[in-house]
Design brief:
Layout: E1 2-5, E2 12-17, H1 23-37, E3 43-49, H2 57-69, E4 74-80, H3 84-96, E5 101-105, H4 110-117
Parallel strand pairs: 2-3, 3-4, 4-5
Antiparallel strand pairs: 1-2
Helix pairs in contact: 1-2
Length: 119
């Protein structure tokens, strides 16, 4: 499941991930991001990842297309999780996608993550 969550800022898209991401979930997020991109040249992502069990093939395809189409439309992403592999993924993402600054936070650092993504 992928759902939108409030962040306190219109320029920050808040996401909560738990389990498997399906196409309908991803399409809601795409609509939200595209609406916000009409108002702001760059967006930020705040993602709470409780658990991740993959994506449906169609959702993965949409994600890949959307990511490459909007790669330069994001400037910062806070990843909040207690899954250690996501900390490594965050460091790797910084090298792979130099236009987006990605930082990993533990769940007990949610407030710091929100403050950082809003800097």
């Amino acid at each position: 499941m992928l759902e939108l969550i409030p962040t306190g800022s219109d320029q920050v898209v808040g996401l909560h991930v738990q389990g498997k991401i399906e196409t309908a979930d991803f399409e809601k997020v795409i609509r939200e991001i595209e609406d916000k991109l009409k108002l702001y040249p760059k967006l930020r992502i705040y993602a709470e990842i409780e658990s991740f069990e993959g994506m449906s093939p169609e959702a993965l395809w949409k994600d890949l297309k959307f990511t490459f189409q909007h790669l330069r439309d994001f400037e910062r992403e806070a990843v909040v999780s207690d899954q250690r592999w996501l900390e490594k993924w965050s460091h790797f993402s910084n090298k792979l996608f130099s236009s987006i600054e990605v930082k990993y936070f533990h769940f007990d650092q949610k407030q710091q993550a929100l403050e950082w993504v809003n800097l």
